[in-house]
Design goal:
single chain, 248 residues, alpha+beta, two-stranded antiparallel ribbon, globular
């Protein structure tokens, strides 16, 4: 999806198609959840083929849009996005799902990035472990796995453990709090600057004393200088589609 509007338009269209299909279908769905152009449905098996054919032949104007399907396996298991869903005794159990091709490579701790960026990797994985696992046992197993993976990406164990504990504590405090409204950000107090190791952190500490929030951005890299293939010819005109011929 090239344009930033593409996911929004795709989601609107998918919602429209599904709402129309559900209204005109003689067999009701138990559950229908959507994320952009992906959907998770619960429907009786004997009704599935009818609904699948129905939604793919809904309107003539949408005949170029065709949905594909993936059904649960014989064990009642089905991956959906980054969630692995399993059905047992009429109940759904969820846990974090990784594709077989997933490399477990994350931002390396020795890379030229600020510490806050590296900690955000830990916070993101911890938050996913908390939200995607349906019970405490699965969450603990996921957190152990995160520790191993991050250690392989050169994260110090002490940093990983402390960041995980802080993240879980903040999540629980937020859930326990009756006031879940986000505090608006005063952008007049936000300063953005390129990250320079050994310098930017000192500036950040100094600005923190005056209640300024510092955001580090990526500076100019060798890669950005060497991979800029755009020419003046491609930027002179607007509102058109370029056709660039490549030699075989």
């Amino acid at each position: 999806m090239g344009s930033s509007l593409s996911p929004i338009i795709a989601e609107i269209l998918v919602q429209y198609i599904f709402k129309t299909a559900i209204k005109t279908c003689r067999n009701p769905l138990r559950i229908a959840k959507f994320f952009v152009d992906d959907s998770f449905l619960i429907i009786k098996k004997r009704h599935f083929q009818y609904f699948f054919t129905h939604i793919n032949n809904l309107e003539k104007s949408l005949e170029n849009i065709k949905f594909t399907s993936e059904l649960e396996n014989s064990k009642g298991e089905l991956p959906f996005l980054d969630i692995f869903i399993s059905r047992l005794n009429g109940k759904l159990k969820t846990q974090v799902y990784r594709k077989p091709t997933h490399s477990n490579r994350y931002l390396n701790f020795h890379s030229y990035h600020c510490l806050e960026n590296k900690k955000s990797v830990i916070r993101t994985l911890t938050h996913r472990a908390y939200t995607h696992n349906s019970d405490e046992h699965l969450m603990k197993n996921e957190l152990k796995y995160i520790n191993i993976v991050l250690e392989n990406n050169n994260y110090p164990k002490k940093v990983v453990i402390s960041t995980i504990e802080q993240t879980l504590e903040k999540i629980k405090q937020r859930e326990a709090s009756s006031d879940n409204e986000k505090i608006p950000i005063d952008f007049s107090k936000v300063i953005s600057m390129p990250y320079i190791n050994g310098v930017s952190d000192q500036i950040k500490r100094l600005l923190n004393k005056y209640e300024f929030k510092t955001v580090f951005k990526k500076g100019i890299s060798v890669r950005s200088l060497l991979t800029n293939y755009r020419t003046n010819e491609l930027t002179e005109n607007h509102n058109l589609v370029y056709n660039i011929h490549c030699n075989d």
